[in-house]
């Protein structure tokens, strides 16, 4: 049985700047003693990828990945969401898939939220966390996640090895980038889903021009996988900027803080 964990390079997180550096250093501490063993390969149903493709087939159509997000470093507390109620509301509002934050200190997330959500809805869920240890991917698979986020800003040259690990565990991987250098690295790993984060996680500054720019670059480079525009989408006009470019948008704060998650999801995606 292949054990990709044995080949995983050690991460050097000392050069990760700003808020992001602080979070990943804490996360690496949380998992410092965790068992890196992955166990046998799991089948890959590719549910996350398939759901996103299904939702963007019509001209200009975009799939929605709705995020269960109770707090963030940029906004502090957003809303005291019950994760299961939020997940059901997003599903009713037309979300193709969910993202569930499991980082506890800055995002008020928990792995139990992911487990509970997976048991309560039929759409697939992604583990949204700062993956810095293979055990985090094993946990995601064991919790029933269909996908996990992998951040090039954190994993650097190790992104490809983590991608293989995710696939070994039967997880789809959303490989996240924020600039040209990170995108080129992501493309070289053979990722099937690339997410472009409009938010610079080292400064928390949002620029909605980042996604269109990098998505065009990915397509020009011949990338034929899924492209996801992430962060900062508050109004249908914002979303319109990536119609015909991205396959999906990932939205958290504006939905989570709306008070009516079903309606907010529908309204945001209306055209
Ligand atoms: O709340 P917003 O602006 O809609 O953003 C959602 C999502 O893109 C954001 O939560 C996010 C994108 N990449 C991340 C990495 C870690 C933590 C959080 C994130």
Describe this structure in words.
It is an enzyme of class 4 (lyase). GO terms for molecular function: indole-3-glycerol-phosphate synthase activity. Its EC number is 4.1.1.48. The structure is a single chain. The protein is α/β, with parallel strands linked by helices and 271 residues long. The chain has one domain: Alpha-Beta Barrel (TIM Barrel). It contains 13 helices and ten strands. The strands form two sheets. Strands 1-4-5-6-7-8-9-10 form an eight-stranded parallel β-barrel, surrounded by seven helices. Helix 3 (83-92) packs across helix 5 (111-120). It is globular and about 45 Å long. The relative contact order is 0.17. Residues 67, 69, 128, 176, 197, 230-233, 250-254 line the site of indole-3-glycerol phosphate. Indole-3-glycerol phosphate binds next to strand 10 and helix 12.
> Which ligands accompany this protein?
indole-3-glycerol phosphate
Level-1 CATH class name: Alpha Beta
Q: Give the number of DSSP strands.
A: 10
Q: Count the helices. How many?
A: 13
With strands numbered from the N-terminus, the spatial order across the biggest sheet is: 1-4-5-6-7-8-9-10
Order of helices and strands: HHEEEHEHHEHEHHEHEHEHEHH
**Architecture, CATH level 2?**
Alpha-Beta Barrel
| Class of secondary structure makeup | alpha/beta
- Compute the separation of the termini in Å: 49 Å
How many domains make up the 3D coordinates? 1
What do we call the CATH topology?
TIM Barrel
Organism: Deinococcus navajonensis
Pfam family, one: IGPS
GO molecular function: indole-3-glycerol-phosphate synthase activity
InterPro entries: Aldolase_TIM, Indole-3-glycerol_P_synth, Indole-3-glycerol_P_synth_dom, Indole-3-GlycerolPSynthase_CS, RibuloseP-bd_barrel
């Amino acid at each position: 049985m292949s054990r990709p964990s044995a080949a995983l390079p050690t991460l050097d997180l000392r050069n990760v700047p700003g808020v992001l550096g602080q979070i990943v250093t804490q996360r690496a501490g949380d998992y410092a003693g965790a068992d890196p063993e992955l166990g046998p390969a799991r089948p890959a149903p590719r549910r996350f990828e398939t759901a996103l493709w299904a939702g963007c087939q019509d001209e200009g159509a975009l799939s929605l990945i709705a995020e269960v997000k109770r707090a963030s470093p940029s906004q502090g507390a957003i809303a005291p969401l019950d994760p299961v109620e939020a997940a059901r509301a997003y599903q009713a509002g037309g979300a193709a898939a969910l993202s569930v934050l499991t980082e506890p200190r800055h995002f008020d997330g928990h792995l139990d939220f992911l487990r509970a959500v997976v048991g309560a809805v039929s759409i697939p869920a992604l583990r949204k966390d700062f993956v810095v240890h293979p055990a985090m991917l094993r946990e995601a698979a064991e919790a029933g996640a269909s996908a996990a986020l992998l951040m090039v800003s954190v994993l650097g040259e190790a992104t490809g090895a983590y991608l293989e690990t995710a696939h070994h565990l039967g997880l789809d991987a959303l490989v996240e980038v924020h600039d040209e250098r990170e995108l080129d690295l992501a493309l070289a790993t053979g990722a099937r889903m690339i997410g472009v984060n409009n938010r610079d996680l080292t400064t928390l500054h949002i620029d909605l021009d980042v996604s269109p720019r990098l998505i065009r670059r990915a397509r020009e480079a011949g990338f034929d996988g899924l492209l996801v525009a992430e962060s900062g989408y508050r109004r249908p006009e914002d979303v319109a900027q990536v119609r015909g470019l991205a396959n999906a948008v990932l939205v958290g704060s504006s939905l989570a803080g709306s008070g009516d998650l079903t309606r907010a999801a529908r309204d945001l995606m209306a055209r």
